[in-house]
Specification:
Blueprint: H1 6-19, E1 31-37, H2 46-63, E2 67-73, H3 78-91, E3 97-101, H4 105-111, H5 117-121, H6 136-139, E4 143-144, E5 147-148, E6 150-155, E7 158-163, H7 164-169, H8 181-193, E8 198-201, H9 210-223, E9 229-230, E10 233-235, H10 239-252, H11 260-264, H12 268-277, E11 281-287, H13 288-294, H14 307-310, E12 311-314, E13 316-317, E14 330-334, E15 336-341, H15 348-358, H16 361-368, H17 378-384, H18 389-398, E16 402-404, H19 411-426, H20 431-446, E17 452-453
Parallel strand pairs: 1-2, 1-3, 8-11, 10-17, 14-16
Antiparallel strand pairs: 3-15, 4-5, 6-15, 7-11, 7-12, 9-10, 13-14
Length: about 450
């Protein structure tokens, strides 16, 4: 064959050069991936931004020669960030990997902004090693309608904290392991008889905002065997909801077991922290944040020098053994952030590799930066939480049975209605009446009775 003319050879080289821009082994040098998060160095979530820039990007680029990763930082209010990334998704301009609050997943999925990971990146998602290290309940943070839309980052769990000194005064056992709501009430009665000012603190009312819902209503509802949203409907004035409001009545309805004034105070939650630290509250329902940031002996908001010896913790029991959701005897609620893939990514397979890299064991440990915090990975938690009994307890015994808020746009309004219902009970209204008023409000919020059960 005759050699190709010089012009034909030049054309062939040009074709090869164009091919090098494609997402494939021949031309990875031109591939660019992006990561977006509400984090910015020197500002909001600075540590997270620094981790992406100093650990994730250089590490991934070393492992994938020719791939460039860019970080798109933000440092704004969460709702502003949510609006921004929603617009980016809608316009097809979102980053390849995007940080979102777990509570936004369902809303974004329904809007078509995000799709299940496997739909975006293919079968490689299902074979990822990390799934075996993330408890199924924790995976739920990124699940909507039974499909996995994102990988959970760190999470938390709700427990009952109790003052061992006050329990000893009342002749209560240590360790304390309540198996029912009645066990909590019985302990409160004994504590009251022993002279404890406020035996029980379960967040209630509107002043405490989402803390009422997450630390109070939703764990109790799970313990009564229901979730606030299931099978496409919102839980209304069901038997479980009436049981929850009935429990609030037992604590705040004249028994003296809880302080109703604290639930109406604009700074009531902070005051409850301080009173627990001072030994004036015996049982308090909170997340692990309370242990690591509020009563931490060194850097806490309300430090307890004897925290490690004076404070006990236990799982939240169901109303009766085995009566909780999924037939559980104990329950919890969790929150946290997830990372999702952009369905419009030009390089979905590589974007998944980046996402999986960010959630591998080494990446997860590096993001913790030596701090004792709960990650989504069991192997990492086993390694980094061994010296913190509460966080290890939450990781091992609480996260496997936890649940999450529904990631739907109307949820914040539903949450406010739940807070109003507890406020009504604290103010003396009958639980059944408060439940009926809540249901009426709920129907207005979610589009009518067809969307409500109970």
């Amino acid at each position: 064959m005759r050699p190709a003319p010089r012009s034909a050879a030049a054309a062939a080289l040009a074709v090869l050069a164009l091919a090098s821009c494609a997402d494939g082994p021949a031309g990875r040098e031109s591939v660019t991936l992006t990561i977006a998060a509400n984090a910015i160095s020197g500002g909001k979530n600075s540590e997270s931004a620094d981790w992406v820039k100093r650990w994730v990007i250089p590490g991934f680029e070393r492992a994938h020669p020719g791939v460039k990763v860019l970080f798109q930082p933000s440092g704004v209010d969460d709702e502003q960030y949510k609006t921004k990334i929603a617009l980016d998704f809608r316009s097809g301009k979102a980053a390849d990997v995007v940080d979102v609050d777990g509570i936004w997943v369902g809303e974004f999925a329904q809007a078509g902004y995000v799709r299940p990971l496997a739909d975006v990146a293919g079968p490689a998602v299902g074979s990822w090693e990390g799934w075996s290290q993330i408890p199924e309940a924790v995976q739920g943070l990124g699940v909507f309608d039974g499909k996995k839309y994102g990988l959970p980052q760190g999470t938390d769990g709700r427990v009952l904290f109790y003052n061992k000194t006050l329990f000893a005064r009342a002749g209560l056992p240590e360790p304390w392991r309540p198996q029912s709501w009645q066990d909590i009430i019985d302990a409160g009665v004994r504590l009251k008889s022993a002279g404890v000012a406020t035996p029980i603190q379960i967040n209630a009312g509107t002043a405490m905002g989402e803390a009422t819902t997450m630390q109070g209503v939703l764990p109790l509802l799970a313990g009564a065997g229901a979730e606030i949203h299931a099978d496409g409907k919102w839980t209304g004035a069901s038997r479980a909801m009436k049981d929850v409001l009935g429990f609030y009545q037992r604590v705040y309805g004249g028994s003296g077991l809880g302080d109703p004034r604290l639930q109406k105070d604009a700074k009531g939650r902070d005051k409850s922290f301080q009173r627990f630290a001072e030994g004036r509250i015996a049982i308090l329902a909170e997340s692990d944040y309370f242990w690591r940031a509020v009563i931490d002996p060194r850097d806490g908001i309300a430090p307890m020098k004897d925290r490690d010896t004076a404070v006990g913790f236990t799982r939240i029991p169901a109303i009766r053994p085995g009566a909780g959701i999924r037939g559980q005897g104990h329950v919890s609620m969790s929150g946290g952030a997830v990372r999702v893939l952009n369905p419009a990514s030009r390089h979905p397979a590589l974007a998944w590799q980046l996402l999986a890299f960010m959630h591998g064991p080494e990446a997860t440990k590096s993001q913790l930066a030596g701090q004792a915090r709960i990650s989504s990975r069991g192997d990492v938690n086993d390694e980094v939480l061994a010296d913190d009994p509460l966080l290890e307890f939450v990781a091992d015994e609480v996260l496997p049975l936890t649940a999450y808020r529904p990631g739907l746009a109307v949820y914040p309004q539903v949450s406010a209605a739940l807070q109003e219902a507890t406020s009504a009970v604290v103010n003396g209204r009958d639980p059944a009446e408060a439940a009926a008023a809540y249901r009426a409000r709920l129907e207005d919020l979610v589009g009518g009775p067809a969307h409500v059960s109970g």
